[in-house]
Amino acid sequence: MGVLSVLRIAGSALTAQRLRMDVTAGNIANAEATATPEGGPYRREQVVFAPKRASALVDSARPSPSGRTPQAGGVQVQAIVQDPSPTRLVYEPDHPDARPDGYVEFPNVDMVTEMTDMLSASRAYEANITVINVAKSMAQRALDIGRG
């Protein structure tokens, strides 16, 4: 696997994790939103990842010179989906969005889960930055060897 492949794969992971952090931040920001334009409380969103196939530059059906068939070429966001878990019912009869029985439907956002997801996405982002820096360093050392 060449340096450019490593950079492309790590770059796709950076993009995916950044979107994951953005979606998580949106969940946190809407944790108390009891009314949305669609009606009802905000629903937690989740990012669904899928492997990205090797680029069009490489015919993935044809084996490489080493005899192996190229596999994944990184990660991509397949979809952003709403979490189907139930909303929280809280008895607040004075709330403007209270039902006739006095209960309010609050979003299905759990702050512990969101902070865990944010930390996980942040760590994955940092790990891919490290991969990019190591690949750049290796490429630079190869160039230095070639000059010497």
Number of alpha- plus pi-helical segments: 2
Give the overall form.
elongated
- What distance separates the N and C termini? 24 Å
Give, in order, the helices and strands.
HEEEEH
Strand portion, in percent?
15-25%
Sum up the structure in keywords.
148 residues; alpha+beta; two-stranded antiparallel sheet; two-stranded antiparallel ribbon; 2 helices; 43% helix; elongated
Describe the structure.
- This protein has one domain (3-31, 45-82, 109-147).
- The chain contains two helices and four strands; from the N terminus they run H-E-E-E-E-H.
- 43% of the residues lie in helices and 19% in strands.
- The model has no long low-confidence stretch (mean pLDDT 88).
- The radius of gyration is 22 Å and the shape is elongated.
- Strands 1-2 form a two-stranded antiparallel ribbon. Strands 3-4 form a two-stranded antiparallel sheet.
Helices and strands in order:
Layout: H1 3-29, E1 45-53, E2 72-82, E3 88-91, E4 103-106, H2 111-147
Antiparallel strand pairs: 1-2, 3-4
